[in-house]
């Protein structure tokens, strides 16, 4: 499985607009493959966000979040040059993480 | 009957362990622990019992949201009609001043509980995300704030289900 995370963190007028895209199948466990076999559930449970190494918040998900999850949040304390880390863990124990630096948006 | 603060996560084994050890609570100062601080602790662990629920009434019970008050401080933007239930873009916002936790549920999904997060100080009360909808359903946004559970709900018509 690819471990691809794309993060965009754009600071403008005091607010950092954070957008995160994670490649993940987010299988519900209700689908069948072409051979009629059940595809087991496989979804991200928790996404952890850190700002300069300090825990900001977590998002807890079930299989009801769309495949290749895309989400946006707005941070009030992040400044250009700050580091934002995104770490996910799924129900099978797989993990992925990526760090992005907040950029000033003109 | 009023809902005791944060009671909705008491079934969570990790939180129970933390409570038992008292480590974080001692650090936070037990006497001064506000309900929102309790939620901040509670949001640490994946709320398994709510995600295991297969109907929305059970999920709401597991969240301690048996009694909810409709609130115009919460904003839930959804499309009226979603052509693809596999990816329905929603936006959440709240005008509550204090930090709080939120949850999103889709009543008629096989797993109604969709997500939960916490808005701490420094994070705007805003989340945009794409969710799955198996069929036309009510979508609920709940906010857990100061021992209260607030709610706003929107009906979304789905023309092609996305939970299969």
Describe this structure in words.
The complex is a heterodimer of chains A (106) and B (164). Chain A is an all-beta fold and 106 residues long. Chain A has a single domain (5-104), classed as Sandwich (Immunoglobulin-like), CATH 2.60.40.10. Chain A has strands at 5-12, 15-22, 44-51, 54-61, 70-75, 83-90, 95-101, 103-104. Chain A has a four-stranded mixed sheet with strand order 5-2-1-8, with no helix packed on it. In chain A, a hairpin with a 4-residue loop joins strand 6 and strand 7. By secondary structure, chain B is of the alpha+beta class. Chain B has a single domain (13-158), classed as SoxY domain (Immunoglobulin-like), CATH 2.60.40. Chain B has five helices and nine strands. In chain B, the strands form two sheets. In chain B, strands 1, 3, 5, 6, 8 and 9 form a six-stranded mixed sheet that branches. The A-B interface holds A 15, 26, 28, 30-31, 45-46, 51, 56-67, 69-77 and B 43-44, 46-47, 51, 86-88, 106, 109-120, 122-124, 126-132, 162-164.
What would you say the CATH architecture of chain B is? Sandwich
Cα separation of the termini of chain A: 36 Å
- The average pLDDT score of chain A comes to 95
Q: Identify the quaternary structure here.
A: heterodimer
Radius of gyration of chain B: 16 Å
Strand content of chain A: over 45%
Contiguous runs where pLDDT drops below 50 for at least 5 residues of chain A: none
**How would you spell out the order of helices and strands of chain B?**
HHHHHEEEEEEEEE
CATH superfamily annotation of chain B? SoxY domain
Estimated helix fraction of chain B: 10-25%
**Gyration radius of chain A, in Å:** 16 Å
The largest pleated sheet of chain B is described as: 6 strands, mixed
The pair of chains with the biggest contact is: A-B, 29 and 34 residues
As for the number of domains of chain A, it is 1
Under the CATH scheme, which class of chain B?
Answer: Mainly Beta
CATH-defined superfamily of chain A: Immunoglobulins
Given this structure, which CATH class of chain A is correct?
Answer: Mainly Beta
Q: Work out the helix count of chain B.
A: 5
- What's the count of strands of chain A? 8
């Amino acid at each position: 499985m690819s471990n691809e995370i794309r993060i965009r963190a754009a600071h403008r007028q005091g607010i950092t607009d954070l957008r995160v895209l994670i490649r993940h199948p987010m299988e519900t466990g209700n689908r069948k493959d072409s051979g009629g076999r059940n595809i087991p559930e496989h979804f991200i449970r928790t996404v952890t966000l850190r700002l300069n190494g300090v825990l900001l918040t977590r998002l807890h998900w079930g299989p009801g979040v769309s495949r290749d999850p895309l989400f946006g949040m707005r941070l009030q304390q992040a400044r250009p040059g700050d580091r934002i880390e995104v770490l996910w863990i799924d129900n099978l124990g797989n993990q992925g993480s990526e760090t992005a630096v907040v950029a000033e948006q003109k | 009957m009023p809902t005791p603060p944060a009671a909705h996560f008491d079934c969570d084994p990790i939180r129970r362990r933390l409570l038992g050890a008292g480590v974080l609570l001692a650090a936070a100062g037990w006497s001064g622990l506000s309900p929102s601080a309790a939620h901040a602790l509670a949001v640490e662990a994946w709320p398994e019992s709510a995600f295991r629920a297969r109907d929305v009434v059970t999920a709401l019970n597991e969240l301690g949201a048996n009694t909810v008050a409709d609130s115009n401080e919460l904003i839930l933007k959804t499309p009226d009609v979603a052509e693809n239930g596999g990816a329905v873009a929603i936006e959440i916002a709240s005008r509550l001043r204090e930090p709080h936790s939120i949850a999103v549920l889709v009543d008629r999904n096989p797993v109604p509980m969709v997500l939960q997060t916490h808005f701490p100080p420094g994070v705007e009360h805003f989340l945009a995300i794409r969710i799955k909808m198996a069929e036309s359903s009510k979508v609920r946004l709940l906010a857990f704030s100061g021992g209260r559970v607030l709610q706003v709900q929107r009906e979304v018509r789905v023309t092609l289900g996305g939970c299969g």
